Amino acid sequence: MSSVDNALVVQRFKLVIAYVRLNRIKPAFTTSLFSNQKNRMDNFNHSQDSLVSVHNLTFSRGERKIFDDISLEFERGKITAIMGPSGTGKTTLLKIIGGQLFPEKGSVTVNGRDVHHLKRDELYTLRKRMGMLFQSGALLTDMNVFDNVAYPVREHTHLPESMVRSLVLMKLEAVGLRGARDLMPNELSGGMARRVALARAIALDPMMIMYDEPFTGQDPISMGALVLLIKSLNVTLGLTSIIVSHDVHETLAIADYIYVLSEGKVIGSGSPEEIKQSSSEWVQQFMNGAADGPVHFHYPAKEYMDDLLHSEKAFKPLFTRQRPPNDRKAKRRRYS
């Protein structure tokens, strides 16, 4: 058993004992804890049902259609990756799942709840069970590592500070940064900041975690550590993970299922091996990093020469500078 597994097993054992002994915790929080434990045990044996379902989703920004009637399923206890070229709406999809953006058509359900038909307090309650690892880490710059991880626990529970301390140290131990708890975010490397953000994402023991480009900007060692952490936490905690990434090698190493998006459509889906063997030119161009293929380098525009010839007629400067007249009479009038 790895050090990550050991830390998480000890964490769960101590937390269950503490919850039994303490009476000052909200009853609803205690109930949800034990129901979460049962659900997670069931997830290991029954992971075929979907925790997140996206049906016939359509979403646009202005005249540009980001998603055009797409459907996706994210199975419980699995790591599902969303891949595709930059600008295809991968991060936008996470925002729609989290209820930050509303679709034009279609529906998104999380654990059987229609996200976009929930009341505000119901949506906030659901979000407490959805961890999020932001692309930048999004650590609070005026708080040290310990307080960053403790923040959601203090905000959403009534745990005594002694228990908050134990919980935070266990989360930091799981990501290998217990010794860095007093450091400020500006004292962390990029890989360390991403791991602190991961510890914060699991602070409330969520049922799922969404990762927005977790491998971007990481050196090979940090990237390898993140790959191991994501896989280990998913298995040990029985999580459902959704990873948005365009790092092909790392994502293929840990994903159970992959969706490839392009131009508002799902152009490929399947296991990593099925994606590698896909006959789609779009999928093969992305997976192999080919410069030539269906995905063009240039953003759609009119013909280049027509644009150049038309530009002189259409161009109007925002500000026109009036030059002083050169003739002497005009100058005399100006200064008289």
Radius of gyration, Cα only, in angstroms? 26 Å
Residue stretches low in confidence (pLDDT < 50, at least 5 long) are: 16-48
Helix-strand pattern: HHEEEHEEHEHHHEHEHEEHHHH
Task: State the strand order across the main sheet.
Answer: 6-7-8-3-9-10
Q: What share of the residues lie within helices?
A: 40-55%
Can you describe this structure?
The structure is a single chain. This protein is α/β, with parallel strands linked by helices and about 325 residues long. It contains 13 helices and 10 strands. Strands 6-7-8-3-9-10 form a 6-stranded mixed sheet, with helices on both faces. A 4-stranded antiparallel sheet has the order 2-1-4-5, with no helix packed on it. Strand 7, helix 8 (about 220-235) and strand 8 form a beta-alpha-beta unit. Helix 1 packs antiparallel against helix 6 (about 160-175) and helix 5 (about 145-155) packs parallel to helix 7. The relative contact order is 0.13. Mean pLDDT is about 80; it is low at about 15-50.
Please outline the helices and strands:
Blueprint: H1 3-21, H2 27-45, E1 50-61, E2 64-75, E3 79-83, H3 90-97, E4 105-110, E5 113-114, H4 120-127, E6 130-133, H5 145-156, H6 161-174, H7 190-201, E7 208-212, H8 220-237, E8 240-244, H9 248-254, E9 257-262, E10 265-270, H10 272-276, H11 281-288, H12 304-314, H13 328-335
Parallel strand pairs: 3-8, 3-9, 6-7, 7-8
Antiparallel strand pairs: 1-2, 1-4, 4-5, 9-10
